[in-house]
Design brief:
heterodimer, A: alpha+beta, eight-stranded antiparallel β-sheet, globular, B: about 240 residues, alpha+beta, 10 strands
């Protein structure tokens, strides 16, 4: 923590009224804590871990978001069990693809931004407000993106005003786009989108929606070397979460294993 | 050129303390007490929007009496302090002791160097893993800190209500017992001839730090939940 307390009292930035944003506050008192505020020179390819495929889809009661567990650095597997889908707050989830270290830092910052607003204002942001805040945080990261350290998140949550799940995608400049029904980001997203298009249908229940998300990740892992499939031997399964009016809930590994077994059995049966 | 009158420092400090005490005494009281599964904070406050009791961090709560604009400013500073610390280090490294020290420095500096002291009194409460680890700090307008055991009363009739509470408080109360005790204490009449008039549920602001909750322990008790806890036991 760089803000010093040597003045004998909390510095003026702490007691300045007006802002409910943690990011704005940190930019003033400890700017080096923000990824976009660090001086970066040079460029070129850095061999840092990169996070890959995230899928999200809307179902009857909310959304499902799922991410595989692989991080790659060049052609090497940097991690087999990284987690890329997180609760943003009680009623929303965020998944990240791109430069893993910065992505995880941005998620921490975003989670804190939402909690900070809620504590200071006494009520949570609207879903639209949360989506816009994420765009602003991402925009602060543009200089790093230009250096090859891009992060692209996928955001989704339950909108209490519309009583429905909604999904938002982003580009590295902070552009925010609302997605209808389903979406996928990351290196395996082309294959995952193809799978979602065929399997998704309106008004699915939670179990079916989880199975569709897992199947999309299996398809992505099938054709993209940077996406990891379910690993029965090590018992590593994707991170899958549902967000409904009841809140963010991670799907337990036991359920995922059953879903994966079912998909594999169906596919084995389909073969002549 | 006229010379200013000499005012001895003792007098200066006494005047400031009297001024702050008068401001605080005008407000209604806040009672904070530990129960078996957490800490309950109770205040007489008919407003639903202007809070005297708030969440600072996962296991830390804030309660204040005095001038609203002054303690609101300190509350926001506390949230910023805690969130910045938690972001720089880790969530478990945010402690009520650190926050109480920062507040004490701020209150103390304002008391001695600025033209007017802050007319506030604050409690910073932190929930421990076990009841024995609970911490309740009381901070006064001049920056002095007291580490209180089990319960605190601040505000208008703090001494009088504190004496009533001291007589009846025992560790290990249930939430229902603790809440009722707090409400009865708040309803203690100003003099012995008047009748006790405990405030009704809609006049109360109540929040708890609940040891059974996983991360953010702070929860406001309002509406039917609060009425139910305050209702007489029929069984």
């Amino acid at each position: 923590m760089t803000a010093d307390l040597t003045a004998g009292r909390l510095p003026a930035a702490f007691t300045t009224p007006g802002s409910s944003s943690f990011v704005e506050f940190v930019a003033e008192v400890a700017p080096t804590l923000l990824p976009g505020h660090r001086p970066v020179t040079g460029g070129g390819e850095l061999a840092v871990p990169s996070a890959t495929t995230i899928v999200a889809l809307v179902f009857a009661e909310g959304i499902v978001m799922a991410g595989d567990r692989r991080a790659t650095a060049g052609s090497m597997i940097a991690s087999r069990h990284i987690e890329k889908v997180f609760p943003a707050d009680d009623l929303s989830a965020v998944g990240v693809a791109g430069s893993a270290g910065i992505a995880i830092e941005l998620v921490r910052l975003f989670q804190l931004e939402l909690e900070h607003f809620e504590k200071i204002e006494g009520m949570p942001l609207s879903l639209e407000g949360k989506a816009n805040r994420l765009a602003t945080i991402l925009r602060g990261n543009l200089s790093l993106a230009l250096q090859g350290l891009a992060v692209v998140p996928l955001f989704g949550g339950f909108d209490t005003e519309r009583d429905a799940g909604r999904i938002f995608s982003y580009d590295v400049t902070g552009g925010r786009y609302e997605e209808l029904d389903h979406h996928a980001i990351g290196s395996g997203s082309v294959f995952a989108r193809g799978s979602l298009k065929k399997r998704w249908s309106p008004g699915m229940d939670a179990d079916r929606a989880v199975a569709v998300a897992v199947e999309a990740l299996i398809d992505a892992a099938d054709d993209d070397s940077a996406t990891g499939g379910p690993d029965h031997q090590r018992r590593i399964y994707p991170v899958v979460a549902t967000v409904t009016a009841a809140g963010y809930q991670r799907v337990p590994d036991g359920d995922l294993r059953a879903a994966v077994d079912q998909i594999e059995a169906d596919r084995a049966g389909e073969q002549p | 050129m006229s010379m200013p009158f000499y005012v001895p420092p003792e007098q200066l400090m006494k005047d400031r303390a009297d001024y702050a005490r008068k401001g605080i005494a005008r407000g209604r009281s806040v009672v904070v007490l530990a129960y078996d599964e957490g800490i309950v904070l109770v205040s007489e406050n008919p407003s639903r929007a202007l809070h005297k009791i708030s969440e600072i961090y996962d296991r830390i709560a804030f309660a204040a009496v005095g001038k609203y604009n002054e303690f609101e400013n300190l509350r926001v500073a506390g949230v910023r302090y805690a969130d910045l610390r938690g972001y720089s280090y880790d969530r478990v490294d945010v402690t009520a002791r650190g926050l109480a020290n920062a507040y004490a420095q701020t209150l103390g500096t304002v008391f001695t160097t600025e033209s007017k002291p802050l007319e506030v009194e604050i409690v910073v409460a932190e929930l421990g893993r076990e009841p024995a680890d609970d911490q309740i700090y009381r901070l006064t307008y001049d920056g002095s800190v007291a580490d209180e055991q089990g319960y605190v009363v601040m505000g208008g009739q703090a001494d009088r209500l504190g004496a009533v509470l001291a007589e009846r408080y025992a560790p290990g109360l249930s939430l229902r017992e603790a809440l009722r005790l707090a409400v009865e204490v708040l309803g203690t009449p100003a003099d012995d001839s008047a009748q006790a008039l405990p405030p009704a549920a809609h006049q109360l602001e109540v929040a708890i730090l609940d040891r059974t909750r996983p991360r953010r322990a702070f929860r406001r008790l309002t509406g039917p939940v609060l009425e139910d806890l305050l209702a007489d036991d029929k069984s």
